[in-house]
Design a protein that fits this description.
The chain has about 120 residues and is an alpha+beta fold. It has one domain: Beta-grasp domain (Ubiquitin-like (UB roll), Roll). About 30% of the residues lie in helices and about 20% in strands. It has four helices and seven strands. The strands form two sheets. The protein has a five-stranded mixed sheet, with helices on both faces. The protein is globular and about 40 Å long. About 25% of the residues are buried. Bound molecules: FE2/S2 (inorganic) cluster (FES). FE2/S2 (inorganic) cluster binds next to loops.
C-alpha cells in the first residue's frame, strides 16, 4: 500500500493504489487546501518532495493552470494527481497557492507544425 506523507500537517497515511491525493487528504485530514476539486481554482497546489515517479502524468489542464515553470519545479494539483504504487511526500506553501489561484490558465499553444 502506498503512503502519503502530508508534511505540513505531519500525517502519514496508507492509501489504496491509484488514489487521488486530494480525496485522501479530505478523508484523513491531510489538510491540503482546496476548493473546487476540479482543477480550476488552484488552491490544492502542492510540491512533490519525494516519490514523483509514483504519481500519474501531469494532465493538460493541470499544466495550463500551473504553467511549465511550476510543473518543472515539481508542483502538482492535488485534485488532479493520483498516487500509483509507491510512497510520496508532499508539502505546500501559501505564497505558491496564492500565485496559482491568481494565475489565468494558459491558452493551448499553437505548435509550429500547425502554422504551416
Ligand atoms: S481544488 Fe481547485 S484546482 Fe484542485
Amino acid at each position: 500500500m502506498p503512503k502519503i506523507n502530508f508534511i505540513n500537517s505531519n500525517k502519514v497515511i496508507d492509501v489504496p493504489e491509484n488514489s487521488s491525493v486530494l480525496r485522501m487528504s479530505l478523508r484523513y485530514d491531510g489538510e491540503l487546501p482546496n476548493r473546487c476539486g476540479g482543477g480550476i481554482c488552484g488552491n490544492c497546489v502542492f510540491k512533490i518532495e519525494e516519490g514523483a515517479e509514483y504519481l500519474d502524468q501531469v494532465k493538460t489542464h493541470e499544466r495550463r493552470k500551473l504553467g511549465d515553470e511550476l510543473v518543472e519545479k515539481g508542483y502538482r494539483l492535488g485534485c488532479q494527481t493520483f498516487v500509483i504504487d509507491g510512497d510520496i511526500a508532499i508539502s505546500w506553501n501559501e505564497e505558491t497557492r496564492k500565485e496559482v489561484v491568481k494565475r489565468k490558465p494558459e491558452k493551448h499553444r499553437v505548435s509550429p507544425q500547425t502554422i504551416k
